[in-house]
Queue: 3 jobs
Job 1
Amino acid sequence: MTSPNIELSRTIALAHLEVSSDESDQYIAQLKNILSHMEQLNTCDTTNIETTPYVYQSEMTLRPDEISQPFGDVKAANPQHLEGPYFVVPQILGEGE
């Protein structure tokens, strides 16, 4: 398992967040607490438990197929973020890796 400090630093960099040292320490403590809980769950004996694809069973809701413009209202509200039919977003992968 990787260090929570490394994972938090990488996540903060990828999300372009500004986090103070105090906040970082708080988040690391919370992350360690979550990982500790996951370690406890890993010790549970699940050999006699049947696997399921979902947490709960539900009926599949079907709707009729209708042709529509995808993201029509979003495109109309944000024309400055369009380049042709595509959304323009800042590059986050490949920076500082």
Job 2
Amino acid sequence: MAAGGENGGLLLAAGAERSIRLYDPRAGTDVKAAYTAHTGWVTAVSWAPDTAVQFASSSHDQTVRYEQATYFKLGHRRIVGAG
């Protein structure tokens, strides 16, 4: 699990199900986005140190992925941390 993103208020969670889930605890407990590019267990996830909108993840599929965190809010795509 990694805390970060917009004002440090977002959480990334990952594990054996091969996905990374984005949560915004301030907005409730629902998953805001799911990233499913890995084909193996996700072993680590971390927010990028120089931006609030990107994160890296590694997996048993022997890849490292760099993603941009986005989620949908009220029917509009929102890039979290943009400002």
Job 3
Amino acid sequence: MSIGAMRAFGEEGVAIPDQIELITIGVDTPGFEEYAAVPISAMTIPAELLAKECVNILLQQLEGKTAQSIEIPVEFISRKSCGE
């Protein structure tokens, strides 16, 4: 989606990062972002950890327990789409 957004902004004459900053967010992003015309900043969520935590919450709920809030660490990779 971020590549499509980049293209749409370009077609409308919106400059990245001068007029708008672009970040892609995903689970273990595939890595294509750094090869875009303007390398796209990324926020990645570790898929394996996210899956484990989701299963733990589901098991807690099945046992009738109240699931607790969790925090999943993310990694931010700054590239030119955010003015690096």
